[in-house]
Amino acid sequence: MDGSTMQTFLAMCGYMACVVAIGLYFARRANQSTENYFLGGRSLGPWIAAMSAEASDMSGWLLMGLPGVAYWCGLADAAWTAIGLAVGTYINWLIVARRLRSYSVVADDAITIPEFFSARFKEKKKVLLTISALFILVFFTVYAASCFVTCGKLFSTLFGFSYQSMMIAGALFVIFYTVIGGFLAESASDFMQSIVMIFALVVVLGTATSAAGGASAVLENIRSIPGFLDFFGIAQPVTADGVQTVVNNAPQFGEASSYPLIKIASALAWGLGYFGVPQVLLRFMAIRRTSELKQSRRIATVWCVISLTCGVTIGLVGRALFPTALLTSSDAENIFVILSQNLLPPLAAGIVMAGILAATISSSDSYLLIAASAFAKNIYQGVWKKDASDKHVLWVSRIMLLAISAVGIVIALDENSVIFSLVAFAWAGFGATFGPIMLASLFWKRTTWKGAVAGMVSGAVMVFVWKNLISPLGGLFGIYELLPAFLVSLVVIVVVSLLDKEPSAEIQEAFELAKKGAREAAN
């Protein structure tokens, strides 16, 4: 390891030490109760709630996956996805946050998403709780794997070690940190990490644009690539066995393909995922006062727009500066690392690339903690051993966290894994499984328990069916699986609920109480 690499390494180690210190600081408080460990005692302020939600949501995908898509095939796919996410962020904070914060208290002071659904419908046999907890386990395991892939790609690119060893090392650090600190440590460090992430994006974008000769020079350079800057067209790299062809030191592109409305709808559909992702919904439940959600919404939206814009643009500028450095769609996700290494002093590069580590940690700790709580709190204590003590539940959650991590590591062993693809599948899973039922639970009093179960299962199943059986047919069927699965789930909820008898008076009274609480908080 030469001197420059050592400086980068030390800067990143310093950052990791800060993260561990935060975990240790909150460890004692986290271990006081399961409510503190899993939801922080509903004590988050507006800044921490907003920025920790966005940091845990975006993950390393923001600094590697999104720029990688823009680098590989141009503006359209990345930009339309970013627009969908920005709009989804705003609408989620606008219409879901206040009602969920109020309703989660009314629903037996629920501290997890499965608990909320179970209490919302006053179920006795905990079927809905068990199903939702199991789906959280499945999709968060895939999500955790995407974060481990990010760690592996980052450290192997930086330090030259094997991908697998670096992926496992990164995963072990995340596991250790999550085990000791719980939700409060996760949220506090996520706040810090959201600042590091946006700082890293702005610095790398500004430095890269300057190195390329300014915005006009970048545009002139990449405008020659067919479809690269089109909103309704997409660039087509010429590849042989998945590797882009290079002739006379120039990457080869074919004629641009059209980017039809069906693809635009697919990209914009990413915004639907927000209604069902537990890591964001839990922040709504954890904020200390409902009245502070308006401020949180503004903070979250501004952060999201700036970060997504920078992420897309970094990929475009990276293609102008290093056109032949990354010749596969998987390698393209390293463009942020390449720019940092080549354009910044080693110490500064280490600090900036800590942004990738920040994004990865802020997401993977959320995923692991929520998945572990889904099993320990909802299945173990909620179904199997109802008299389990808080201390016992905490130990079970930590054991489950290790088990989930082990499966995630196995999934992430393939160094050719594409972060964007892994995140897209898990995002669709959460959006279609929990999004429709969350909206129906909060805003439609007529929703029944049977409708909730049928909608949740149909949404999750349709994600798998569409992804693996229908999408390969292409054409109209090539749409992102989140959109059709979301619509199917919504229709099933409505139809089954209308065919079922009306919810009990107790359920309807709780609905009106939550509605009243949300309305009073808004005034």
Describe this structure in words.
- The protein is mainly α.
- Helices cover 74% and strands 2% of the residues.
- The protein has helices spanning 3-30, 34-39, 46-58, 61-73, 75-106, 113-120, 127-159, 163-211, 215-222, 261-268, 278-286, 293-321, 335-343, 346-384, 390-411, 419-443, 449-470, 482-499, 505-522; strands at 233-234, 239-240, 243-244, 246-247, 250-251, 257-258.
- A two-stranded antiparallel sheet has the order 1-6. Strands 2-3 form a two-stranded antiparallel sheet. A two-stranded antiparallel ribbon has the order 4-5.
- The longest helix is centred in the middle third of the chain and has 49 residues, at 163-211.
Q: What descriptors fit this protein?
A:
mainly alpha, 523 residues, two-stranded antiparallel ribbon, Sodium/glucose cotransporter
Question: Layout of SSEs?
Answer:
Elements: H1 3-30, H2 34-39, H3 46-58, H4 61-73, H5 75-106, H6 113-120, H7 127-159, H8 163-211, H9 215-222, E1 233-234, E2 239-240, E3 243-244, E4 246-247, E5 250-251, E6 257-258, H10 261-268, H11 278-286, H12 293-321, H13 335-343, H14 346-384, H15 390-411, H16 419-443, H17 449-470, H18 482-499, H19 505-522
Antiparallel strand pairs: 1-6, 2-3, 4-5
Helix pairs in contact: 1-8, 1-14, 3-8, 3-11, 3-12, 3-14, 4-5, 4-12, 4-14, 5-10, 5-11, 5-12, 5-19, 6-7, 7-8, 7-14, 7-15, 7-16, 7-17, 8-12, 8-13, 8-14, 8-15, 9-12, 13-14, 14-15, 16-17, 16-18, 17-18
